[in-house]
Amino acid sequence: MEVLRGEYTGLPIPANSEIGLEGEFRHDEKRLEGPFGEWPGYYAGGKIEEPVFRIKRMMFRDEPILTCAASNKPPHSHLYERAFIRSAALWEGLEKAAVPEIHGVWVHEAGSGRTFNAVSIKQKYYGHSRQAGILASQMVPVAYGNRWTIVVDEDIDPSNLSEVVWAMGTRCDPKVDLEVMQKCWSSKIDPLTFDEKYYNSRVVVDACKPYEHRLDFSPVAETSAELKAKMMAKYPEQFKAILEQE
Prior knowledge:
This protein is α+β, with helices and mostly antiparallel strands. The chain is about 25% helix and about 30% strand. The strands form four sheets. The chain has a five-stranded mixed sheet with strand order 7-8-9-11-10. The chain has a two-stranded antiparallel sheet with strand order 1-2. It has a two-stranded antiparallel sheet with strand order 3-6.
């Protein structure tokens, strides 16, 4: 990476940065910060004194590009890139943890990119779905502030909330298919944090068909892909009008 040497700090600064700020933190200077809009979708901060950063030198490109981050009630712009990046990272983590047959992972925008996440698997053995859910609930990048981890079968698109909720409503028996964990990693900007103990509880929802009944479970009532394609080809204008309305 190309760098230049900061004239004030002597530290390396990426030469292609849009903006570079040099300055100092003083150990004896703190002030209340915020409140600011934060990733859960609420104003947070303003309760704890934070170190003050004194800017001594500023560098910037001509007409710098400021992407910024509007942290407010979801969905909002930078949640979409978070969803892609964190979904990929969680999928990679599960594979590295030797969880087999992962068919999809999605960190949902509606969950602020952390609190509601779905994993789709093809069950291979007893306990497979719990293994995937418990590991997924505790892995970076979603362990911080996670609340809900939903595990679904491979026929469910984990990015489609309607399908995920359908699986929760028809394949999950709340009495036996919920695992609640306590004293997990939370945050000072969690709206349910009321003191300086940054814990939360979270739940793994096993919304997969019971493993012992995966082969004799009630079949899904839906149009086959072949018939759907045939009807779309036969009545293209009618379906085009319906899709445009949606």
